[in-house]
Specification:
The protein is α/β, with parallel strands linked by helices. It contains ten helices and ten strands. It is 33% helix and 27% strand.
Length: 269
């Protein structure tokens, strides 16, 4: 195993940090001993075979694992230096600042306008709602496609448009970090390309962490890549662990670990 801290030339400002993080479901260890620094205004990709804990670790960063019965997180996770499990931290507020976009588009059964306005409203937004909706949709590269049908259901949009609507919904509550759990897996290639282009624009204002099974996507969009793998247990289960974390160009062209090389070249996974 190697150090998985970001080198100083990559980032002097770390948005999220995981220190010796392990995740249990009941008494079952799912992921062990993860150390990760997520630099601000970068795109970090999590790659690795199924069952290696990528999504589990992603959910740690906004405490979504709290919502899973029996889940337990050990170790320390900080957001701009503050322990996110400190008793003074409100998990709802944490999830506002560390937003999430899920694998399948999940618009609310409301109008396009209300999909954006709803979260902002319940979070006490006091500004111009029309302006917020427009700016959020523009930020998700969707405004020109929906500006004349804001009263129509968000469910009437195509799959790619729905996913960008969900990204706009996340933007509307003004997060600092956006977690994306395989956001393109249910999309066609053209919609995938639009989301990838959008991510490049968004990183100017947000930190993005994306879980993806698509090696080409990881190499195209991310600045840093974390490769996770899993080891079999005697009971037939798997325990995920972080193998290597480095600049994306190094992970794909000159990885330090043999298993990373084998995975990114398609020899296993």
């Amino acid at each position: 195993m190697i150090s998985n801290s970001v080198s100083e030339d990559i980032a002097t400002d770390i948005a999220l940090k995981a220190e010796n993080v392990s995740v249990f479901y009941g008494s079952t260890l799912a992921v062990k001993d993860v150390f990760l620094d997520i630099p601000r205004n970068q795109i970090v990709a999590f790659i690795g075979p199924s069952g290696c804990g990528k999504s589990t670790i992603l959910r740690c960063f906004n405490r979504m694992n709290d919502l899973i019965p029996g889940a337990r997180v050990e170790g320390r996770i900080t957001f701009h230096g503050r322990d996110i499990h400190d008793k003074s931290i409100d998990p709802v507020e944490l999830r506002r600042r560390v937003g999430q976009v899920f694998q399948r588009p999940n618009p609310f059964p409301k109008s396009i306008y209300e999909n954006i306005a709803f979260g902002a409203r319940i979070n006490g937004y006091q500004g111009s709602m029309d302006e917020l909706v427009e700016n959020s949709l523009r930020g998700a590269a969707l405004w020109d496609e929906v500006k004349d049908k804001l009263k129509e259901s968000g469910l009437s949009l195509s799959g790619g448009q729905q996913q960008r609507l969900c990204i706009a919904r996340a933007i509307a509550i003004q997060p600092e970090v956006i977690l994306m759990d395989e956001p393109c897996s249910a999309l066609d290639p053209i919609s995938t390309l639009k989301v990838e282009e959008l991510m490049q624009q968004l990183k100017e204002s947000y930190t993005i962490v994306i879980v993806t099974h698509n090696m080409q996507q990881a190499s195209r969009v991310s600045d840093m890549t974390a490769f996770f793998n899993a080891e079999a247990t005697e009971s037939g289960g798997k325990i995920g662990y972080l193998v290597e974390y480095d600049k994306t160009v190094n992970i794909f062209q000159n990885p330090a670990q043999k298993s990373t090389q084998e995975y990114v070249t398609g020899r296993f996974g």
